[in-house]
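call fold(seq) -> tokens
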Amino acid sequence: MPEGPELHLASRFVNAMCAGRVFTGSPVKSEVNWKNPEVSFEAKAYTISAVSRGKEVQMSLNPVEEGKKKKGKVLESLKIVFRFGMSGMFRFTPASELPKHAHLMFHTTDKPPMVLSFVDVRRFGKWEVGGGWQKDRGPCIILEYQEFRANVLSRLSDAAFNRPICEVLLNQKYFNGVGNYLRAEVLYRLGIPPFVSARSVLEPLAKAEELVAQNGLKGVKVKTEQPDLLELCNKLALEVVSLGATTYNHSPDSESSHDAFLRWLQCYYNSDMRTLVDHNGRTIWFKGEAGPLAPKGGKTRGTNKKMEAAVKKRKSTNKVDQAETVKKVKLEVKTETSKGSKSKKTPKRNTRPKHPSTKVGTGTPKSTTVGRTRSKSAQAPAKNTPARPRRTTKATAKTPHQPLPKRASTRRVGQKSRK
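ret:
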């Protein structure tokens, strides 16, 4: 699922592709996407800009000066809020090369025309026309770090913090922008078991800030050897943004940054780590002990073999040379095995001679076979051996026929019998 860094990169992509371009006509919605609303916009010419906040992207359709007035009405900017679901992303392509799963399209006035498309293969993505940010989402971990930190530490008394830290990290009310790979990397790099109480992890941070405030040093950061959990959420998200592309949104022209992201992962989809399904049905990758709040039964879940293989491959620094050497070695092995198979003659099958048929009327075979001789018990019986009498049991012994009892008459009193 796309996380905060992916949506921040998506807003950057929209701003980069739409800079200096003019769009025209109402946005076109795909016929197969019946869950999301139509987007009606009357401006003949408009520009597009975007901004992200956690796991949301807000797109603005801004009318240009020439097309602002229509029939005496002044057109205002239209806001569209996107949530990417499992596989949402933006693509910018020529109109003749629309992506297969494009569900909302914005056409430019360029010649040939270009199209900005919201692409969603699994159709879990949503958009709201004229809406703002969701009210139940907290501040963004990337762009609103101070507000994000204050929001978490001031609400530690909420019942949500009784739950395991790995589950609270996915609660967008407090950690807006954290997803599955970010929570795994944060907990792994801090050495925190995933199934310990979230309050026990975060309360020391709140107490440290209270002591600093009491000493009149409010706003001053106490230097520590490593960043705390809240700082690392912000730091790792910014590191992913600086890489430029992740597993969820990358194009062929950004393969180098995508490879860098796969090398950046230390815990997520690492075969050396343990996996466990949390109480919400999400898989957490970790190392060491799970913690006292781990689910009973401890269900594990298989990893994505393709993703795991890609991570292993990208972690090698000289992956191109390594792939070439592996191919050469495979070719050498194939040629050696093929040459060896041609030179070697296939050995004849070691077939044992069959027993010759016995003569009619005799119980002994005509000749003995090569190898072991038959035992006395396995030899044929003698010719003059008397036949064994047949055993009879009670079941097989014949008994005289006994007639069945007469059936009782079922005729009612006064009813004549039919003859």
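The radius of gyration is 39 Å.
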